[in-house]
Design goal:
InterPro entries: Ala_racemase_N (IPR001608), PLP-binding_barrel (IPR029066), PyrdxlP_homeostasis (IPR011078). The chain has one domain: TIM Barrel, CATH 3.20.20. It is built from ten helices and eight strands. The radius of gyration is 17 Å and the shape is globular. The structure holds pyridoxal-5'-phosphate (PLP). The site of pyridoxal-5'-phosphate has 14 residues, from strand 8 and helix 10.
């Protein structure tokens, strides 16, 4: 199936679910991104800041760029002029760097708190306690140009449905606790980014609002 057909099928599947599609374009050349754009996709996810910064000027300005991979503070300047959402916010240090650069550009950058929900140790992200430490810190009170819009997580690479559901529920639980304790009156704190090509259906059933899908659209990255 073509990129356009895959996007149409996914959009039809997500319709009415409360989840929106982030088309994960990492490693794919700009021509494939243009194909996705022509098929109606407007949210693109990249995991490397350099690659995202190189592609961004080649696409129309109404694309929402989502960074989904680890961002080093010394790379923030590459994406600060245009990034819509940094889904992979994993430290206070990064939050402060993003805030500083966003202010410099007179922008508000959205960010999701990335949580560690997988069994694999290697995957990054906050524990609930660490996220609370960030939200309770004095530094957090100084942040004006980054808007926290929700949470993100990457589940274990597995086809064990029970395990995946447990991890998605854990992330949703974190979201609900944070919402109640820190963002009760804040309508913009609403995103639960979870689900990839292999597990987005389960993630949607467990309350995902943003699914990040690459290989189910473009084929495997080889
Ligand atoms: C690559 C990637 C995806 C998309 O993975 P697919 O299996 O190709 O759909 C989603 N989220 C993150 C964080 C990724 O790095």
């Amino acid at each position: 199936m073509s990129v356009a057909e895959n996007i149409a099928r996914l959009e039809a599947e997500l319709a009415g679910s409360g989840a929106r599609l982030v088309v994960v374009t990492k490693t794919h050349p700009v021509e494939r991104l243009r194909e996705a754009y022509a098929a109606g996709a407007r949210r693109f996810g990249e995991n490397r800041p350099q690659e995202m910064a190189a592609k961004q000027p080649e696409l129309p300005p109404d694309v929402e760029w989502h960074l989904i991979g680890h961002l080093q503070t010394n790379k923030v300047k590459l994406v600060a002029p245009f990034v819509h959402t940094v889904q992979s916010l994993d430290s206070l240090r990064l939050l402060l760097a993003l805030d500083q650069h966003a202010a410099r550009h007179g922008r508000i950058i959205n960010a999701l708190l990335q949580f560690h929900i997988a069994e694999e140790e290697a995957k990054t992200g906050f524990s609930y306690h660490e996220a609370e430490e960030l939200l309770q810190s004095n530094e957090f009170k100084t942040v004006n140009n980054v808007r926290l819009t929700g949470v993100m997580g990457v589940a274990t690479f597995s086809d064990d449905e029970n395990l995946l559901r447990t991890e998605f529920r854990q992330l949703r639980g974190y979201f609900e606790l944070l919402k109640a304790h820190y963002f009760a009156g804040d309508e913009s704190f609403k995103e639960i980014s979870m689900g990839m090509s292999g597990d987005y259906r389960l993630a949607v059933q467990e309350g995902s609002t943003l699914v990040r899908v690459g290989s189910a659209i473009f084929g495997s990255r080889g």
